[in-house]
Amino acid sequence: MSQAQIDTFAALIEDAINVLKADDTLPVDWANNSQITRTKDLAHGDFASNVALVAAKAAQMNPRALAEKIVAALPKNADIRQVDIAGPGFINVFLNADAKFAVLNDIFERQDRFGLTNEFKGQKIQVEFVSANPTSSLHVGHGRGAAFGMSVANLLEAVGYEVTREYYINDAGRQMDILATSTYLRYLEANGETVVFPVNGYQGDYVIDIAQTIKTQHGDTYVHPFADIAQDVPEDAVYEINAEGEKTLIRGDKEAHIDGLIANAKAALGEAYQIFHNASLSSILQDIKEDLDDFGVRFEQWLSEKSIESKIEPALQILEDKGYLYEKDGNIWFKSTDFGDEKDRVVRRANGQTTYFASDIAYHKDKFDRGFDKVIDVLGADHHGYVARVKAALQAMGIDPQRLDVILVQFVALWRGEEKVQMSSRSGKFVTLRELREEVGNDAARFYYVARKPEVHIDFDLELAKSQSKDNLVFYIQYAHARVCRVLEKLEQLGYAVNDQLGEQHQALLTNEAEDELIKLLAAYPEILKRAAIGYDPHVLTNYLKDLAALFHGWYDSSRIIPKSILDGETPSSDELDMMQARLRLSKAVRQVIANGLSLLGLSAPSSM
Question: Which among 477, 447, 405 has a CA at the least distance from the CA of 147?
């Protein structure tokens, strides 16, 4: 039931097809696109082929009659005990006992490498994820991107890709200017200035902390009267707030106001402005790195947006030379509609400044210039319009857009009981990833972040994530691993040893339905890993682990592993000992596969709970 066994049977089917082509039962040019699948019902064998149903039209035969011909032409194979024809023409295969249990040998031989392959060895792939603006601590929404991106990268490595995990540091542009100016205004307050803080400034306490650090280092060296910083700045937004907390703008413009403050702060400080910019960036980026490291998320590359600035003009020049840029209303536009985008995009504004999109073009060109065969961007759902324009730019520059995959990760809603927690990084009132981890633990956070498809919205239930029940899937899966550890410890306490050789000799005793299903599910693990990896879909693995744990718990509860005679202090029979060793071997195989799967998801496999 291993993938290798399925591949072997596929080759036997192909040999039989060639025999039927030779005797004109099938056309010589008929292409076999049939499937071999694991059966759900053990009465139907270990796996089944639909080749007779697929080929019946080409052979102009009844599928069942064609199936009989295919079975008759199948070469003999030592692993196959029986081949039946079922229903309208399915070919069902039953493996002999040695072949069925071969997966256990594979698990014990390969241990933590069981399921890993080198199928995609030599292919370089980059996964860029998180890449949150370094303007505040990571919040619970960023956590989903972190857990998902890391799990995808791990899975890709598991099937042989050479993976580079990258965090793109957005350390240039307007958001960093807003943060730097917010820090400067708090610095003025710390030095006794009366400041009217802007609506659109970063208001969290962390900004005050950064400003206080600068004051400690530099005193009042960079103080300018707030009146000078606010001079000739457009009026800030003024809102009316109703009883429901809804805001209505009365007058003013928060964007124009903060931009005016930024311009005046830069003019007043000159080169010293970079002190506030760099202090803010350094402090928050360090916080992000520590947070992600504690979350088990690592990157091979932290790339600064500033390092891309010199590459923007050459990238735009390529588009210019190819005739894909034009001027309109003083702006320079990219003809992205030529490549399927809904509208053309500005790459340079009338004031001469390049846009974020221009930086994105240069950044993605740089990715492929670095030699990646494939690039994956893991982004928030609010980047929906981003995909078409970036792919259009790649195509315009002569880079195959199919080499870029963009995965949009939906938002996370955090619930405390019946209350939904609101988050706003600008106001500073948000639940951080660190706070979530402290409350529910890394394992629960990592698991529930990836337990659903990325395009599905998550309602994160804090109480469920902390509960010790089978409804908490993290606990349920980890408990299966711990249960096996507990059995082994109990056996040792009772003075008995695990004998894997004896367990292998008597594994044919494992004949009940649950044991057959467990072995079949263990054999499916490599196939599950491959499907999760190439589909960028960690939830395929979480579902598998849930199914494996559920099957194990049911078997454990109904099938005694340690004989009652041993627990009662009596001498067990030889038959009891043989069955115990066989079941211990199966239990250890389940434990190993659960540990392997949890590891790829970044979760621990506890020995006690």
Answer: 447
The tokens for 70 are 């295919």
Report the pLDDT averaged over residues 178-192: 97
pLDDT, tens digit (0-9, with 9 covering 90-100), for 510-568:
989 899 999 999 999 999 999 999 999 999 999 999 999 999 999 999 999 999 999 99
With beta carbons less than 8 A apart as the criterion, state whether 132 and 146 touch: no
Name, in order, each residue with C-beta under 8 angstroms of 442's C-beta and a sequence gap of 6 or more. Answer: 294, 295, 296, 602, 603
Token reading at 506: 């008597």
Which residues are CB-contacts of 337 (< 8 A; sequence separation ≥ 6)? 343, 344
Residue 279 C-alpha from the chain's centroid? 32
CA angle 66, 69, 74 (to 5 degrees): 125
329's torsion region: left (phi>0), alpha (psi -120 to 50) or beta? left
SS3 breakdown of the chain: % helix, strand, coil, rounded to 5? 55, 15, 30
Q: Which residue has the higher pLDDT, 98 or 370?
A: 370
Alpha-carbon Rg for the chain, nearest whole angstrom, is 31
